[in-house]
């Protein structure tokens, strides 16, 4: 029952969003959802437990980031149950995704997803963002329900390339968090996210460094 419902919701949702994923990619997305639902019973990976909400709130929500992906290497911090990292990796096999989480149960689940879904473009790292030392910084870093923006830039700023950007997914627009951002970071753009079945406000904040030139202009 759930899987036929999910298949219909996913196909209709992707069409409405203009996301042209082939049958194989859709099969992998649904297989990921089956894994997530199965492991969630023991590992508490997501609060979404109503079958009818799973495709919209887990798959379609994650895939709203597709138009904003421009890098060939992307880090998903606080990857948790693989959202948005796993759906994005399925949709964009040409991009190398690194999924980082400090919870060993969650990284165990993510590793299992990589194996079962044969995601050659995904690396899973168990650890804290502050301790992560990649070979080179990332041009884009995604986060979904991870932490406040001040923590995001403090913990992960060293992982981001100088001209890179954070893609921070939020619910209601976080005015307080934006106002508390350090002066060397700014919201370069904000987008209202929408998808079939969306039952509340969703926003994407694109955060980047304030360059010295912008500082001098701002300072007069």
From TrEMBL:
It is an enzyme of class 2 (transferase). PANTHER family: S-ADENOSYL-L-METHIONINE-DEPENDENT METHYLTRANSFERASES SUPERFAMILY PROTEIN. It catalyses: guanosine(527) in 16S rRNA + S-adenosyl-L-methionine = N(7)-methylguanosine(527) in 16S rRNA + S-adenosyl-L-homocysteine. GO terms for biological process: methylation. Its EC number is 2.1.1.170. InterPro entries: rRNA_ssu_MeTfrase_G, SAM-dependent_MTases_sf. It is found in: Cytoplasm. The gene is rsmG. Belongs to the methyltransferase superfamily. RNA methyltransferase RsmG family. Specifically methylates the N7 position of guanine in position 527 of 16S rRNA. One of its GO terms (molecular function) is methyltransferase activity. This is Ribosomal RNA small subunit methyltransferase G. SUPFAM superfamilies: S-adenosyl-L-methionine-dependent methyltransferases. Its main location: cytoplasm. S-adenosyl-L-methionine binds at residues 78, 83, 129-130, 144.
